[in-house]
Design brief:
This protein is an alpha+beta fold. It has a domain of about 100 residues: Winged helix-like DNA-binding domain superfamily/Winged helix DNA-binding domain (Arc Repressor Mutant, subunit A). It is built from 4 helices and 7 strands; from the N terminus they run αββββαβααββ. A hairpin with a 2-residue loop joins strand 3 and strand 4. Helix 2 crosses helix 3.
Amino acid sequence: MGEIIVIRTSDPDESIYRAIIDALQEKDVQFLHAASLEPSRLILGDIEIFPERRRVTKAGVEICLNYGEFSILYCMARCPGRVFSREQLYNAAWGEDYELGTNTVDNTIWRLRSKLEPDPKHPTYIKTVFRVGYKIER
C-alpha cells in the first residue's frame, strides 16, 4: 500500500522544499509538483497585493513596503476577517518566536496604516481587535 504525503510551506526561496526533496531522494518515491494555489493578486478596495513580486499598489501607485510590512499585510490579507495575534503575525513575518513585551508588530501595523489607510487614526482596512490582535477587513 502506497502513502501520499502532501507538503505545503510558505517557502519563498524553496529552500525547505529542496531540503525535503533531498532527504527523500534515496527513498522509493514519486514526486508530483502541484501548481501554486496562491492567488496572483489580492484586492482590498483600492489596494492591490501581488504576492509573487512582493509588490503593493494603492490606486495604481506602488507603495514601498519593507519585508516585515509586506509579510504581515499579506498574512492578514489572505484571510480577511480572521483575527491574528501579535505572535502569529511576528512568526509569519520573521519566522521567529515572539518575545512578550516587544512592540515590533504594533510598530509595523502603524507604518502599514500610515502608508495604506486614507485616515490612519480611523483605519478602514487594518483593524485592531482589542486584547487579541489585528485583522483585515475588505
